[in-house]
Every structure is written in structure tokens, then in C-alpha cells.
Amino acid sequence: MTTPPARDPGLQGERTALSWTRTALVIVVNALLSLRTGWVSGQPVLIAVGVILVLAAIAAMIYGTHRGRALAGQTKAVPPAAPTIAIALTAAITLLACAAGVASVLVAH
């Protein structure tokens, strides 16, 4: 008698939530760098970008928590892939966070 292969449901929901958490953490770090540099050097543009990035990080955490729970089966069924708009917004915010980090370093020197 052959035993059936072990079922590996995976941890997609957990991995998804963790990836969104890591993305939000990186955005927050760049936001804080931008806010500090803007405050110290008197650059209102960097302060505004920092505030936008903090809000984006909060949104990423909320969305990541929702996606993780949905994929874990705790909420209504959702498509396995994130909507294209969520991916595009995340890419744009990540690019903005990178640019803010580079600008903060350049303004500080």
C-alpha cells in the first residue's frame, strides 16, 4: 500500500503578509530619513515626501494584512494574485522611497 504524498498547502498568506510588512518597513525607513533631512535642512519638499511615504507605508501594512488573511482563508475568497493597480502603486511608491533616500543623502552633504 502506497501512502499518498503529503499535502503541502504552503504558507502563501503568511509569506504575502511578511513581504508587505518588509516593504512597508523599507518605506518607513526612507520616510524617516526624508523627514529628518527635510526638517534639519529646511526642505519642505522632503518633509512632504516623507509624510506621503509614511501614509503609503501604513497603506501597505493594511493591504498586506488584508491579503495575508484572505489568502489564509480567514476572509472572503480573493484572487491569488494581487490586482495590477496594487502592484503598480507599490512599485511607484518604492521608487519614490528610493529617490527620497538618495535625495536625503545628497541634501545632507
Description of the molecule:
This protein has 109 residues and is mostly helical. Helices cover 76% and strands 0% of the residues. It contains three helices and no strands. It has helices at 12-41, 44-71, 84-108. It is elongated and about 70 Å long. The chain starts with 11 loop residues before the first helix and ends with a helix. The model has no long low-confidence stretch (mean pLDDT 83).
What's the shape? elongated
Mean pLDDT: 83
Topology, number of strands: 0
Query: How helical, in percent, are the residues?
Result: over 70%
Q: Measured on Cα atoms, how large is the radius of gyration?
A: 19 Å
User: Distance between the terminal alpha carbons, to the nearest Å?
Assistant: 72 Å
Question: What structural class is derived from the secondary structure elements?
Answer: mainly alpha
Give, in order, the helices and strands. HHH
What is the percentage of strand-forming residues?
A: under 5%
Main beta sheet: none
Tally of separate helices: 3
Uncertain runs:
none
Which keywords apply here?
109 residues, mainly alpha, 3 helices
SSE layout and pairings?
Elements: H1 12-41, H2 44-71, H3 84-108
Helix pairs in contact: 1-2, 1-3, 2-3
Summarize this entry quickly.
This protein has 109 residues and is an all-alpha fold. The chain has helices spanning 12-41, 44-71, 84-108. The model has no long low-confidence stretch (mean pLDDT 83).
